[in-house]
Design a protein that fits this description.
- By secondary structure, the protein is of the alpha/beta class.
- Strands 11-10-9-8-12-6-13-16-15 form a nine-stranded mixed sheet, with helices on both faces. Strands 2-1-3-4-5 form a five-stranded mixed sheet, sandwiched between helices.
- β4, α4 and β5 form a beta-alpha-beta unit.
Length: 392
């Protein structure tokens, strides 16, 4: 009788996978554990593109002990030939493994259920879905790349009860309370890049680093949409270049002298084609460039014009919105989503996804996941999740 899959071993595979967080993109984070008679006999994780995959490394460590053992892996093993690494399914079939426990199927069209099918045809039992939500979370950027061809985008905001993020003068510090600010830094810790507009830099002069007392944190790349290269040379973000890079995205009209000055300060400057607005940049080009630069998870912190651009293009996968018990009032106060208002409610973006709420001190956190592990599982990993961007 086959034992019930043990979540502890999948949790270990996920922890192993996370060791390559900063080196493996655009490949997925994958860890593997070989278990025989309740004991771990092999471990491995995929460190960077071109190096052996997690399953292969775990099987090598296990050696002959892999025969009759279970293999735990957080993502469906690959089954396709490529230039640098052999198919993992072939190695698994040759090892004598009797069962493979998989966290999540791989939507890569070259895999997408084919790996599971190949294992089952070879006589190996397959269990799918153990710790699928955690497996989804660590690879949501890779999954978005496979399904939508762009990074996984989290839209974050903090607003008053009447939907405002600042007074008409731009005063916005602070609408939300200390627990919400701590949560904002926790969000930064889980993303590859953080994006703001030049308005936020000019008004707030933020650091955009991750600060969680008593804990080692991850600092995302700081990305500023600044079509005219107006970022001040004395901005605070340049004081912390040793913690994370600063990327400034300009448009074709930015002065070359300003670009050179920003580069001299230590920023990396990207010049992209103009967008729909005369002083903007094309959002699709931006997201494509971020993928090329291996930024697969993006936290968009605003302001209102940047938020509006992502909403208008429906290029959003997750929303995290803090609502504070405050009323600002006034028609000239700045709303969370800027831009033009639709004439009809039928033109508004109805998310059609459940809203979840949590308390953050006196504030209320509203969370919306436009797709997640459950929705991915409904397709068996073989069909594309409807992209908000494509449905615009």
């Amino acid at each position: 009788m086959m034992s019930v899959p043990d979540p502890r071993f999948m949790a270990m595979a996920i922890r192993l996978a996370m060791r390559a967080r900063d080196t493996v993109a655009p490949n997925p984070l994958v860890g593997a554990v070989v278990v025989r008679s309740g004991r771990i006999v092999g471990r491995g994780f995929h460190e960077r593109p071109g190096l052996p995959h997690a399953e292969v490394l775990a099987l090598r460590e296990a050696g002959a002990r892999a025969k009759g053992a279970d293999l735990y892996v957080n993502l469906e093993p690959c089954c396709h030939l490529n230039k640098r690494t052999p198919p993992c399914t072939r190695e698994i079939l040759a090892s004598g493994i009797k069962r493979v426990v998989i966290g999540l199927s791989d939507p890569n069209p070259q895999v997408s259920g084919k790996g599971i099918s190949e294992l089952e045809k070879g006589g190996i039992a397959v269990d799918l879905g153990l710790l699928k939500r955690r497996s989804f979370e660590i690879n949501r950027g890779f999954l978005a790349l496979m399904l939508h061809g762009r990074p996984f985008v989290t839209l974050k905001g903090a607003m008053s009860l009447d939907g405002k993020i600042a007074t008409f003068t731009g005063d916005s510090q602070w609408i939300s309370g200390a627990p919400s600010l701590k949560y904002a830094h926790q969000l930064r810790d889980t993303h590859d890049g953080i994006l703001v507009g030049i308005g936020t830099v000019l008004k707030d002069n933020p650091l955009l680093t991750t600060r969680i007392p008593g804990r080692k944190t991850h600092h995302p790349v700081r990305i500023i949409l600044d079509s005219m290269a107006r970022t001040p040379l004395g901005a605070r973000i340049f004081e912390t270049l040793g913690e994370s890079p600063v990327w400034i995205v300009t448009g074709p009209r930015a002065q070359k002298s300003r670009v050179r000055a920003l580069e001299k300060q230590g920023a990396r400057v990207f010049r992209l084609p103009a967008g729909e607005e005369n002083d903007g940049v094309e959002l699709r080009d931006l997201l494509s460039r971020l993928v090329e630069e291996r930024v697969l998870t993006l936290l968009v912190e605003g302001g209102s014009r940047i938020t509006a651009a992502f909403v208008r293009k429906r290029a959003v996968d997750r929303i995290r919105l803090v609502i504070a018990p405050m009323i600002i009032g006034g028609r000239d106060a700045i709303g969370w989503v800027g831009g033009d208002c639709p004439e009809l409610l039928t033109e508004a973006w109805r998310l059609n996804r459940p809203l979840r709420t949590n308390r953050l001190g006196e504030d209320l956190l509203v969370s919306v996941d436009l797709w997640d592990a459950d929705r991915l599982s409904e397709t068996g990993g073989t069909a594309k999740i409807p992209s908000p961007e494509r449905n615009a």
